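ok new one. same drill as before - structure tokens go in, u give me an amino acid for every spot. 332 of them this time. try not to just spam alanines like last time pls lmao
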């Protein structure tokens, strides 16, 4: 049995790792007999994204329908939100840090497990595309700050002012009190994270953000950290996070969700368990912050879960582009 089929079998039957360990003592021929595998129908292609971003999922869907890969789809889907100046949490028009700088974090991951990331990037709108270039054109995984910016210019990205009048005004109003408080469900839209399965059944994911509004200068969140803000394993599934990045990093959230799916949990169960890890920490002040996850498994089943009400997932599947409210831990 090939490793890929074996993983499918264990996750589908829910027998997980324990059965895998038992089977490893069997001969190969016995393994074949022990687990007759019905390869499940894959409900693909599909695109899911954090929050209500139907224009972005529409774009990604079109990319897939015209023969593009899941990687192209998630990049181009995220770019829609990066270019939208009215969205104050991603790309151009993102809310600045406490010193008035808009600094972007983004990452991308392909079906081979390759990844690229940019952190603390200024003056370049399409952070997700720079992250893809880091993945494809450099020997590195992550570029930061001035180095990331220099790399972007060298390969042709234009320099732009990302601080729009609206975001500058919001920052100036914030400065009056200068209170640092993570905002739950900022405008109902924070990081855009997107996961896709293309017509070949291959998975990719990406996410892009201007991070927490009015953060300390230099602060980097979960979104560009592979395993925290995003993780893709083409044999199992993928997950992406939004919300207070510090809490996601502390639990390596997206990797955790994918590993839970590997052990047999559905995407929904895995997202719920990852949120439980956050809220069940001793002295967790989870009532004051939001974290949300969306996930998809290799078969095209999806899940979404958050701490607070207000989080949603946009899903494009079978020609339907829908925004679906996520279930949540705190039931007000
Ligand atoms: N996760 C992002 C960060 O912590 C922000 C967000 O999604 O609200 O930077």
């Amino acid at each position: 049995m090939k490793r890929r089929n074996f993983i499918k079998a264990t996750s589908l039957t829910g027998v997980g790792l324990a059965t895998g360990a038992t089977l490893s003592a069997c001969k190969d021929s016995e393994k074949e007999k022990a687990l007759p595998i019905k390869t499940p129908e894959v409900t693909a292609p599909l695109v899911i994204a954090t929050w209500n971003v139907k224009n972005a999922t529409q774009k990604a869907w079109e990319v897939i329908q015209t023969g593009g890969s899941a990687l192209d789809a998630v990049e181009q889907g995220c770019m829609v939100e990066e270019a939208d100046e009215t969205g104050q949490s991603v790309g151009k028009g993102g809310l600045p840090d406490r010193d008035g700088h808009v600094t972007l974090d983004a990452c991308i991951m392909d079906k081979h497990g390759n990844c690229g990331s940019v952190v603390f990037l200024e003056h370049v709108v399409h952070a997700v595309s720079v992250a893809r270039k880091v993945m494809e054109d450099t020997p590195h995984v992550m570029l930061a700050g001035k180095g990331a910016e220099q790399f972007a210019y060298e390969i042709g990205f234009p320099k732009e002012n990302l601080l729009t009048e609206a975001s500058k005004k919001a920052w100036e109003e914030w400065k009056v009190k200068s209170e640092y408080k993570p905002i739950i469900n900022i405008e109902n839209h924070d990081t855009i994270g997107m996961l896709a399965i293309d017509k070949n059944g291959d998975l990719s994911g990406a996410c892009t953000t201007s991070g927490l509004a009015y953060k300390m200068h230099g602060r980097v969140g979960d979104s560009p950290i592979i395993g925290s803000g995003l993780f893709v394993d083409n044999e199992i599934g993928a997950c992406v996070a939004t919300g207070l990045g510090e809490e996601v990093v502390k639990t390596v959230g997206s990797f955790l969700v994918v590993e839970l799916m590997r052990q047999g949990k559905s995407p929904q169960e895995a997202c719920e368990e990852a949120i439980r890890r956050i809220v069940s920490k001793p002295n967790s002040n989870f009532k004051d912050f939001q974290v949300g996850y969306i996930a998809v498994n290799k078969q095209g089943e999806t899940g979404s879960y958050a701490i607070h009400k207000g989080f949603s997932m946009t899903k494009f599947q079978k020609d339907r582009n829908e925004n679906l409210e996520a279930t949540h831990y705190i039931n007000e």
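The longest strand covers residues 115-121. and btw Residues 190-191, 209, 211-212, 221-223, 242-245 surround aspartic acid (CB under 6 Å).
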